[in-house]
């Protein structure tokens, strides 16, 4: 966790997404479906602002998604991300061992996120 401060703004922490949310995933064909679920409702706005279609597409650039779609579920403090063409043709067509399922959700949870230091108490994991 890195703390930064600029003259006009409140202090911010840089943490991996897993400190703010957990994830579940599924796949169908060459499409991966990733959920992001906030650990605490106070973190929801940060997730909406930073876990965008563009940010996810950049984070998965090596997998070359042809499209990233985001669906917000505000009453659940969750979102669903659908990444097209990221599974090397799908489970039955891929020659790799496993680029599907949990592997992609773990990669998503490594996405760096900026969090106001005032929300530190809502982050999962050890306080650092």
Topology:
Layout: E1 2-4, E2 12-16, E3 21-28, E4 31-38, H1 44-50, H2 53-59, E5 67-73, E6 78-84, H3 102-108, E7 112-116
Antiparallel strand pairs: 1-2, 2-7, 3-4, 4-6, 5-6
Tell me the major beta sheet.
4 strands, antiparallel
Question: What fraction strand?
Answer: 25-35%
Structural class by secondary-structure content? alpha+beta
Mean pLDDT: 86
C-alpha end-to-end distance: 7 Å
Radius of gyration: 15 Å
Count the helices. How many? Answer: 3
Report the strand count: 7
The helical percent reads 10-25%
| Sequence of strands across the biggest β-sheet | 3-4-6-5
Give me the strand/helix succession.
EEEEHHEEHE
The low-confidence runs, each spanning 5 or more residues with pLDDT under 50, are: none
How would you describe the shape? elongated
Write a concise synopsis of the structure shown.
With 128 residues, the protein is of the alpha+beta class. It has three helices and seven strands. A four-stranded antiparallel beta sheet has the order 3-4-6-5.
Structural features:
128 residues; alpha+beta; four-stranded antiparallel β-sheet; 7 strands
